[in-house]
């Protein structure tokens, strides 16, 4: 049975995409910077791994059950910045080790988001004893709510680091908080040109 690369995501409103896109002008014609297709911009909640159809069906039930325990909550946009910042160097012998390799749109930390993420991950882990979700690995890092706007190689950062302020661009005054009323199960299709995303299921928050 073929496996599908599955993740759980939250979509962002077009108004926020417009506000963020206005700061990406210098990067659009830069061959060394890869900007995902605008229609694919999203906030990842949980990366679930490679799942078969049965696991996707079970996952939909997990998400629906977990989501039913929460009321609608809001995400508040914060900054556009180079990221990850203060990232530990994987190879300290490299001159570019630990440098940013992406541009993020960040959001204010949300305890409700963290609780929802944990609720889903714990449920997925409970099914591993039954032989499902074997490829799933729970993240140990603290949740960092963000949307990836662009990617580039680490050694290219020195050529673009002055385009954005070191502390990032404050977006909180021009982009309003938005309510989270639905959550998506998505499939990603990877290629040399980047990733394309396909909606698998959408769960509405009552």
Description:
This protein has 206 residues and is α+β, with helices and mostly antiparallel strands. The protein is 24% helix and 33% strand. It has 5 helices and 11 strands. The chain has helices at residues 14-21, 25-28, 53-67, 111-128, 157-160, and strands at 4-11, 33-34, 42-51, 73-75, 77-83, 102-107, 146-152, 169-170, 178-180, 182-191, 194-204. The chain has a 5-stranded antiparallel β-sheet, with helices on one face. Strands 3-1-10-11 form a 4-stranded antiparallel β-sheet, covered by helices on one side. α3 (53-67) packs antiparallel against α4. It is globular and about 50 Å long. Residues 90-94 have low confidence and may be disordered.
Summarize the structure.
This protein is α+β, with helices and mostly antiparallel strands and 206 residues long. It has 5 helices and 11 strands. The chain has a 5-stranded antiparallel beta sheet with strand order 2-7-6-5-8, with helices on one face. Strands 3-1-10-11 form a 4-stranded antiparallel beta sheet, covered by helices on one side. Strands 4-9 form a two-stranded antiparallel ribbon.
Secondary structure blueprint with pairings:
Blueprint: E1 4-11, H1 14-21, H2 25-28, E2 33-34, E3 42-51, H3 53-67, E4 73-75, E5 77-83, E6 102-107, H4 111-128, E7 146-152, H5 157-160, E8 169-170, E9 178-180, E10 182-191, E11 194-204
Antiparallel strand pairs: 1-3, 1-10, 2-7, 4-9, 5-6, 5-8, 6-7, 10-11
Helix pairs in contact: 3-4
